[in-house]
Structure formats: C-alpha cells, structure tokens
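Hi support team,

I'm filing this because I wasn't sure whether my run with zinc ion finished correctly. The job status page said complete, but I'd like someone to confirm that the output block is well-formed before I use it downstream. Pasting the exact inputs I used:
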Amino acid sequence: MKQHKLALCKEHYLEWIPEQTERFIKKYKMFTREEKVIVAVSGGKDSLSLWDILVRLGFKADGLYIGLGIDGGRDYSSESHRLTENFAERNHLNLHVVDVEKEYGYSIPVLAGMSHRGKGKPCSVCGLTKRHVMNRIARDLGYDVLATGHNLDDEAATLFGNTLIWSKEFLIRQSPVLAESDGLARKVKPLCRFYEKEMTAYALLRGIEYIYEECPFAVGSTSIYYKKLLNELESDRPGAKLIFYLKFLEGRKQGLFTSPDPDAPGLITCPNCGQPTTAPGECSFCRLISKVKTELD
Ligand code: Q46
Ligand code: ZN
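And here is everything the job wrote out:
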C-alpha cells in the first residue's frame, strides 16, 4: 500500500483492515457496540466484507438484501442474491430480504421503464427505491444505524462529481456519518477510507465469494468515468485520492459545507408510507408506484 508506505503479509493484513475500520467507526462516532446495525448487502465485495468485518469485531450486525429484479442477460440479481444468502448461511448471520417486485408489484427495470426519471437508465429509480426500502426496514425493525459498503474510490468519485459543479446540497450530505433526523435512519460508511483495491484484497484473502461483475446498468456511468480519471491521477501520485477525500473531511470539520441551506425545505411525513419527504403530498417513491399502477393496470 504505497499511500501508507506499508506492506503486510496475509495474516497481518487481515488484522489491519478490521483494526482500521474500528478506528474509523470510533473517530467519526458512527455507532457503539450496544447499537443494532443493519448492513445493506448487494453480494459485492465491499458490502460482504463490511458485514464480515463488523461481525469479526463483535458488533451486532444483520444484513439487508434488496432484490432489484435486474437480469442484464446474466441473472445479475439472482446471482447476487444467491451469494449473499450463501455468505449469511455460512456465517450463521441474520439476513432480511426485500424483493422489490414481490413487495411493490414491479421490478426496477419495469418501474424505470414507466418513469421519466433517468433518461432510459434505471439508476435514478433504483437509487430512490433502495433509499426508501433501506430507511423503512431500518426504522420498522428497530435498527439504530444503517451501514453501507462505500469505499474510498466511491467517495472520491462522488466528491469529484459534486465538486465539479460545486453542488452545495450534495457536499453538505457527503459524510462518513449522517445523523438520524425526522424519521431518517442514521447512515454510516465504515469503509470510506479504504481503497477499492484494499477491499478486493480483503475479500479474496478472507475467501469471501462475491459477485465479480458490476450491475449491467453501471456500464458507461459517470461515476465509472470519474473513477477512471482518479485512477490515472492516483497512478502518477499515489495517495492523491485519499488526500482529496481527507482534506474535504478536514474542511468539513472546520465548518466548510456543513451549514444547511436556509432555503432547503423542511421534512414532512408522507401520508401513504409515513416516511419523510420534502414536498407536500405523497413521497417520490409512493408517487412512482401509484403512477406505474395507474398506467399498467
Ligand atoms: S444497482 Fe441500481 Fe446501481 Fe444497477 S441500476 Fe444503477 S443504481 S448500477 S449501484
Ligand atoms: Zn411515501
């Protein structure tokens, strides 16, 4: 690991990753050992590794898998579901599964096809649905905190995109920990300081079986393009990604991008699902489902 000027053998690497994760959990005050954590798992290396690390550290962590109904010619969702179930079974862990089609009547590609969001790509509808389900499950099942497997490459690419257009709204919300508020669960990213490569090495060394392919809809996405640019920068200047992200966090600590926009609308409750929303009436997710129902039924 050039950026840390550190080389470790397998045994010590597998100790170093959890030790560092615990340090980040404490440093950013993400959660305590007494709190109940739910990890959003996709079957990929980051989320399964996160679950593995939290359990090894002795945290009370269950999993949440959301079935999106994405095939992409290679059974993407069924394969990621199978690998997640395998992981949970092998480690005797508790996994909650929400199948979007069974629960709401339509898969992500069908919902996306009927919506104006996303210009032909389902990612916007997918993100909206995942946020809705994750928050509902965390709240309804009494979890204190929702953890996701975002790594440094994800965070640096998001930060790069938000910085290119100085998106204050998103820069304010980009943090290793987002406190709970008005019906929104606390959200944390314990892997936010690990490079993607480091997480791949962890998953492989731990023998975690995960889905290698990205979601078929990730191909050609802006975030992959930003990751490619940042990788070029990183190969010339090892550590550049980490510095970019850590300096941003340092700026936040000093008060940059932390004060909420005074014009931002406050949160109100959706009369249908009870989740927080910004505009009067049903939340965006409930509106999407009603619209698709009306058009398809
Ligand atoms: S799962 Fe969903 Fe991602 Fe696939 S459809 Fe797009 S948002 S790319 S993280
Ligand atoms: Zn709603």
